């Protein structure tokens, strides 16, 4: 009886091992077939550095006193279809989860602002003094890019992308200055000697963004690539009817990282 059980166990293990080998062979053959038909798949991971900025810098912002990109990361899966006999040109479609973060300090004059006062009421007017801004935005993005094989190791990419805001924060504080209520000559409200007031424009962020993406990747090994991508937003991060910030701000970010190609 014991010998029978042992025999059955050995047969079961052998069957499972054989099935595992066949499954691996099938997956490998599927990837080989895909490559032969011009398909390539990638998983990418990296970090992003950049910020949302007005172009050009408006007169209200007199100086940028500090900038911290903070930690921002991205994860992407995409598929590339290569065309032609030489497979020089291709089309890339993917889905990317990404953060677009920054923290800045600036000195401003007559900067349109809406702050939360000492009593919790909102005050709107023109601010002169220091402004600290914190942006923490998470997007789900879909790039559609043209690809070109420059060499056997270098690929170039260019095309549009669209993004949906999953979670967003655009807030901060004002300090060492004064607010002219409602208009540049309105009543002055001072914030001196360490006094600050908060502001929060998170609910005014635009849900959909779109822009252009430029990039390149270098094949370090047969499956491992190093990449860099520049994304340049072409519409304002704020909603169209939001007029407290009187100029448009565009997200400009550089992503760098590694990709694994199947």
Protein architecture, described:
This protein is mainly β and 262 residues long. It is built from one helix and ten strands; from the N terminus they run αββββββββββ. The chain has one helix spanning 2-36; strands at residues 39-53, 61-68, 73-83, 89-116, 122-149, 154-181, 188-200, 208-219, 224-233, 250-261. The chain is elongated, with a radius of gyration of 26 Å. The model is unreliable at 1-36 (pLDDT under 50).
Q: How confident is the prediction overall: mean pLDDT? A: 87
Query: What's the shape?
Result: elongated
Distance between the termini: 48 Å
Give Rg in angstroms. Answer: 26 Å
β content, as a range? over 45%
By helix and strand content, what is the structural category?
Answer: mainly beta
Order of helices and strands: HEEEEEEEEEE
Helical coverage, percent range: 10-25%
Give the tags:
262 residues, mainly beta, 8-stranded antiparallel beta barrel, 13% helix
In short:
With 262 residues, the chain is mainly beta. It has one helix and ten strands, in the order αββββββββββ. Helix content is 13%, strand content 63%.
Helices and strands in order:
Layout: H1 2-36, E1 39-53, E2 61-68, E3 73-83, E4 89-116, E5 122-149, E6 154-181, E7 188-200, E8 208-219, E9 224-233, E10 250-261
